[in-house]
Write a structure and sequence with these properties.
- The strands form five sheets. The protein has an eight-stranded mixed sheet with strand order 5-8-2-1-11-13-14-12, sandwiched between helices.
- It starts with a helix and ends with a strand.
- It has helices at residues 3-13, 20-31, 44-49, 51-63, 75-84, 100-123, 156-164, 187-198, 225-232, 240-254, 270-275, 301-312, 318-321, 364-375, 390-396, 416-428; strands spanning 38-42, 69-72, 91-92, 95-96, 128-131, 136-140, 149-154, 168-172, 174-177, 181-184, 202-206, 222-224, 261-265, 282-285, 290-293, 315-316, 328-332, 337-344, 347-355, 379-384, 399-402, 406-411, 433-434.
- Helix 5 packs across helix 6 (100-123).
- The longest helix has 24 residues, at 100-123.
- The chain is built from 16 helices and 23 strands.
- The protein folds into two domains: 3-285, Acetylglutamate kinase-like (Carbamate kinase, 3-Layer(aba) Sandwich); 290-434, 3-Layer(aba) Sandwich (Aminopeptidase), CATH 3.40.630.
């Protein structure tokens, strides 16, 4: 199948979920990554319970010219085998203590799992190459853990060569202690060390839950380590396994470029998570620096105009630009997102909320929104009827009113007279952006 046909298939697959513009944006971005596109962690339970959806999604990526690096574990399979053979084992600090008997079974389990993934991909006409003989160079982590390795190096050129030959590398979390001794490695640690070297655009954890679940068992769509970590990590509803994963992701993102991200999703939803702004899982970003100014200085005028015109794909009137200097400004340090606030009778009016197209899907809009809401207990705003984020506005607002041209929303405004005043003010504002 040619790449062009595969891309058309991708458009059909995601039709109704995202736009062709979004898909093309992510394709162009990922194609430029080369071997740094993505590292995908596949847990052993996914291989056992969801192999078909896993290989379907990986096959689709391969068809559109993208080669992720796959790292897998085999925990459930190994545990089951050890129990069947009455081989005793224990965990210390979350690490499986690996004596000789456990190691022998671990090597078999990893090789079987690796072959299973590679063969399943090959059956879908995806060239894959397995690395199950101790890809990582290791030293012993600590004698108390037995044959468990601490990664000291890896041969990245092997991975580059595989991807340059259009072959997807499938790596078992096993290491080599010298030339003769294989050692066990925690799969999440293997992903962390590999990502430090590769510096991928995306690190993806495939799980049965499809993301991080909140107290109502609903998927949290975005997490900013900078803004959300301290609060999230102390929630009693965050179960131990996912808590550990979030802690590991924090460490991971500290070792990656600021524009890299981690996603937690399910195998079947992997394309939706990768190729849409809204995603289908949990996107975890390092977080963004949001600066706040009580007024707009002349230095920011051109930047604001650029962000507004790129975000809304229209032209900002000169009259509006001449009026912005008294507004309160929230702006990301990367200068790709802004919020402008006016005050109307001591109630902040969100005059503009704009994120440039190339920043959507990174959690930047979520970060600047949270910063604005944190500083304002009351706020109201308007949006056009066809605005793509009206669904989001309806979810987070305390109420909204529909006029001929606008949806008008508010948060924290309780008094009916104030609500009417806000509606009238928002509805009467002049249009500031024209569309050709």
């Amino acid at each position: 199948m040619t790449k062009d046909l595969s891309k058309k298939s991708l458009f059909r697959l995601l039709d109704g979920f995202t736009s062709e513009r979004e898909i093309k944006k992510y394709l162009q971005r990922f194609e430029s990554d080369d071997f740094r596109f993505a590292v995908i962690k596949v847990g052993g339970a996914i291989v056992t319970d969801d192999l078909e959806n896993l290989t379907d999604s990986i096959s689709f990526l391969h068809e559109v010219g993208l080669c992720p690096i796959i790292v897998h574990g085999c925990g459930p399979k190994l545990t089951s085998t050890l129990n069947e053979k009455n081989i005793e084992f224990e965990f210390i600090d979350g690490i499986r203590v690996t004596n000789e008997d456990v190691l022998d079974e671990a090597i078999k389990a990893f090789k079987d799992t690796n072959n299973l993934i590679v063969n399943a991909l090959n059956k879908k006409n995806v060239q894959a190459i397995g690395y199950a003989d101790g890809y990582f160079d290791c030293e012993l982590l600590d004698k108390k853990y037995g044959y468990v390795g601490e990664i000291k190096g890896l041969n990245i050129q092997e991975i580059k060569n595989s991807i340059n030959n259009n072959k997807i590398p499938v790596i078992a979390s096993l290491g080599a202690l010298g030339s003769n001794q294989i050692v066990n490695i925690n799969a999440d640690i293997a992903v962390l060390e590999l990502a430090k070297i590769v510096q991928p655009d995306k690190v993806i954890f495939l799980t049965a839950t499809g993301g991080v679940l909140d107290e109502n068992n609903k998927i949290i769509s975005n997490i900013s380590i900078k803004d959300d970590f301290d609060n999230l990590i102390n929630k009693d509803w965050l179960h131990s396994g996912m808590k550990l994963k979030i802690e590991q992701i924090k460490i991971l993102l500290e070792n990656l470029p600021s524009d890299s991200s981690c996603s937690i999703t399910s195998p079947i939803d992997l394309p939706k998570e990768l190729f849409s702004d809204s995603g289908k899982g949990t996107l975890v970003k390092k977080g963004h620096q949001i600066d706040t100014f009580e007024y707009v200085s002349e230095d920011y005028s051109n930047t604001i105009k650029f962000i507004l015109e790129n975000s809304f794909n229209g032209k900002v009137s000169n009259q509006y630009m001449n009026s912005i200097h008294d507004k309160k400004l929230f702006i990301s340090s990367c200068k790709r997102a802004i919020i402008l606030l006016d005050n109307h009778k001591n109630i902040p009016y969100m005059d503009k909320f704009a994120v440039t197209p190339n920043a959507r899907g990174e959690g930047l809009g979520n970060s600047i929104w949270k910063k604005m809401i944190k500083e304002n207990s009351k706020v109201f705003w308007r949006s056009r009827h066809g605005n793509d984020i009206n669904g989001f506005y309806k979810q987070i607002s305390d109420g909204f009113h529909k006029t001929d041209k606008w949806n008008i929303f508010w948060i924290g405004v309780k008094n009916s007279d104030e609500i009417i005043e806000c509606i009238n003010y928002a509805d009467s504002k002049e249009v500031s952006i024209s569309y050709e």
